């Protein structure tokens, strides 16, 4: 049974930042990141929360951070409720499974996108130009085709509105050659390792975006990692190039919003119960396929 929905955390701690999904609190040299059940689409937070969404995002991120730590260090310290500050002792049940205590790093303001398949905005651009973010691709590719090799396509990170795709040269101009090449190579290595693992479990990771920070000069992964919010997950059994495959991510919600006639300006319409239940089920299934275990039950 899904857990009760949390759309705001409202904890008695100094607020560090509030994002579309996560509420982050300042613990001095550490941060407390709480994944709520909020869901956004077309840069707008929707009125509904999605049961278990925040816990799936947290637990999948923790899974990937641990699994891929040999490729790239990361900011995760703990997801254990016993490590929460004493001030949150009364909030343990509601926070269980949906928080990460992390190291505080200097965020690099780029979305580091790796594309292994031709989908989304990449497909739209390819149809116009034959390239994705300036990277030329072979002619004749179909929607959802696998690319000859994964492509790194960074974007500037926007606090509001759309992220803006940039060239690798533009990233080098800001971060320098060495750091840019390190980020690009690590991003592709993380994607390739995760995509190979997921494929064995019946999931195609078509693309993903990740974030990096610097801590004492070391490049580390931060924020979330390889979740249905930051990645495009397709079931291998239903994969057919030449169209848009069904997915485990929030494309299900985007499709309903597109069909609803909404003009994509706030306020967003409320999602019907069957759409809420459908996307919650998809998030949980992605977790269970990838980890091989059911999402843990939490008291509330």
Question: How would you characterize this protein structure?
Answer:
The chain starts with 14 loop residues before the first strand and ends in a 9-residue tail after the last helix. The chain has about 300 residues and is of the alpha+beta class. The chain has a domain at about 105-250: D-amino Acid Aminotransferase, Chain A, domain 1, CATH 3.30.470. The strands form four sheets. Strands 8, 9, 12, 13, 14, 15 and 16 form a seven-stranded antiparallel sheet that branches. A five-stranded antiparallel sheet has the order 1-2-3-7-6. It has a two-stranded antiparallel ribbon with strand order 4-5. Helices cover about 30% and strands about 30% of the residues. It has helices at about 55-65, 90-95, 120-130, 170-175, 175-200, 250-260, 275-290; strands at about 15-20, 20-25, 30-35, 40, 45-50, 75-80, 100-105, 105, 110-115, 130, 135, 145-155, 165, 205-215, 220, 230-235. The protein is built from seven helices and 16 strands.
Mean pLDDT: 94
Overall morphology? globular
* % residues in beta strands: 25-35%
Quantity of strands, as a count: 16
> Based on the structure given, which CATH architecture of one domain is correct?
2-Layer Sandwich
CATH class call of one domain: Alpha Beta
**Total helical elements:** 7
- Poorly predicted regions: none
């Amino acid at each position: 049974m899904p857990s009760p929905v949390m759309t705001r955390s409202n904890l008695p701690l100094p607020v560090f930042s509030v994002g579309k999904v996560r509420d982050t609190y300042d613990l001095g040299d550490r941060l407390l990141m709480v994944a709520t059940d909020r869901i956004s689409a077309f840069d707008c937070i929707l009125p509904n929360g999605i049961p278990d969404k925040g816990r799936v995002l947290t637990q999948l991120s923790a899974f990937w951070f641990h699994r891929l730590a040999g490729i790239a260090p990361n900011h995760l310290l703990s997801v254990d409720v016993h490590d929460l500050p004493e001030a949150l002792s009364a909030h343990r049940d509601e926070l269980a499974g949906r928080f990460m205590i992390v190291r505080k790093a200097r965020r690099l303001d780029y979305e580091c996108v790796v594309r292994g398949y031709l989908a989304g905005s990449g497909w739209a651009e390819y149809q116009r130009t034959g390239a994705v973010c300036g990277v030329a691709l072979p002619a004749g590719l179909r929607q959802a085709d696998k690319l000859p090799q994964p492509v790194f396509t960074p974007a500037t990170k926007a606090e509001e509105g759309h992220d803006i795709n940039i060239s690798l040269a533009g990233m080098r101009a800001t971060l320098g050659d060495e750091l840019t090449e390190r980020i690009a190579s690590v991003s592709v290595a993380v994607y390739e390792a995760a995509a190979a693992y997921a494929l064995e479990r019946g999931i195609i990771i078509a693309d993903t975006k990740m974030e990096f920070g610097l801590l004492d000069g070391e490049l580390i992964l931060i924020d979330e990692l390889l979740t249905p919010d930051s990645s495009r997950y397709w079931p291998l059994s239903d994969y057919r190039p030449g169209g848009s495959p069904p997915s485990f991510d929030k494309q299900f919600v985007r499709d309903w919003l597109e069909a609803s006639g909404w003009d994509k300006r706030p306020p967003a319409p409320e999602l019907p119960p069957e759409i809420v239940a459908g996307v919650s089920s998809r998030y949980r299934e992605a977790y269970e396929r990838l980890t091989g275990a059911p999402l843990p039950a939490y008291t509330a």
